[in-house]
Every structure is written in structure tokens, then in C-alpha cells.
User: What shape does this take?
Amino acid sequence: MTTMLLQFHNLGLCSAGPVLGCALIYGGAAQLIAGFQEFSLGNNFGYSAFVSYGSFWIAFGTILFLNASGIYTSDDQDIGCFLLVWGFYTFLLFVNSMRIHTAMAITFLLLTTGFFGLTAAHLGHPEMVVPSAWVLIFCALSAWYMMAAAILEQTFEEPVLPLGKPWISKDMARACLHGLHSHLAAHSLGINHTNAGRRTEQGQEDPERGLGALSHAASDPKRGKAAPPPATPSA
Assistant: This one.
């Protein structure tokens, strides 16, 4: 709902007033409540998404209010940086959404694309506003579709709207994780071998650091002696 209203504003169809009100109440407070309920059910994905985006809308609504009141204004670069970090976070959720179902993956793919598009629009490419607005309108429609599917399934006690299969199967996810672990292990082993080789080369090039240092210590009794313990201060 709030995403749709913001894109209507970006397309010049409404002012920022409806966006501010919906951002604080529906997109903000309501999503926070939904996120806490997801946490009680043990759904970490839903908990992270609802609480984070609820906080996003409260923060965005606060920025709109501060700009309108002149208390503390944010320019395009400020808004662009704000949207950029949320784009990175949304991309992480998109990766996880591919293990849920198609509708969820499409929603977060569109949301990620929209965030980065609006980031570009605020950082010097205003021509990206309109295409990003349309991408996010389709994102909102996709989220509404998932909401309708969940409500209809509970009402009719059976699936009504198809949500599609996960884009990444469990076997594919395991294979990817195994490959990642193998790559990290090989990279770590290569670093260890490189460091060991450097130490060996240094010992061969500079005997003073190897056996030569021991011979010097043996020929010089002062260097061979251990340093006396520090004196205990008297009371």
C-alpha cells in the first residue's frame, strides 16, 4: 500500500501528504507489529523483513516531515545514500527469497531493482524515477498477490492462488554452500602456503634470521643471557 502511494507521488499523481501518513501508520507501525508476530512464530525471514521495512517507512516518513518543516533538510544525495543501503539489505533478502517460492522471489527482485533505480535517480540520474516507479508498482502488486493467496488459502482451507516453486532447490543450495566452503578453504590454504614459503625464502636469504642468529648468540655470552626479571619496587 505505502509503496504504491509513494510511486504515485513519484509519478506526480499525488502529494507527499498521503505518503507520510501511510508511511508512519500502515507501512511503519503495522509492519512492526506484523514482524513481532512473525518472530513469535519462529519465522526469522518474515521477522527481519517486516520489522526492517516497518522501520524503513518510519524513518522515511520522518525524513519527509523534517524536510517539510525545515527542521533538518536532506538533499538528493542524502536520500540516495539512504536508499542505497536499503538496496543492499533488500538484495540479501532476495537471495533468501529464492528458497521460498516464485512469487516471493519476484517481489524481492523487483524491490531490489526499484531501490537501486531510485538510488540512481537521486544520485544524478533523474530519468530513472519513472521506470523505477513502475517497477515498484509491479512489486506492490506482487506483494498484494501473495497477501491474497495467504488470505484465500486460510478462508477456503486449501491453496487457491499458485505461488510457484522455489528458484533454488534444497539440493542446489547445498551444492552452492559446499562449493563456497571448498573455495574458502582452498583460498585459506593457499594463503598459509604463501606465508610459509615467504618465511622459508627469508630464512635462506638472511642467515642472520636463521642459524646465524643462534651462532651469534652463542659467541656473545651477553646476548645469550636472558634478561633479568624486573625489580620489585620497594614499599
Notes: DSSP finds nine helices and no strands in the chain.
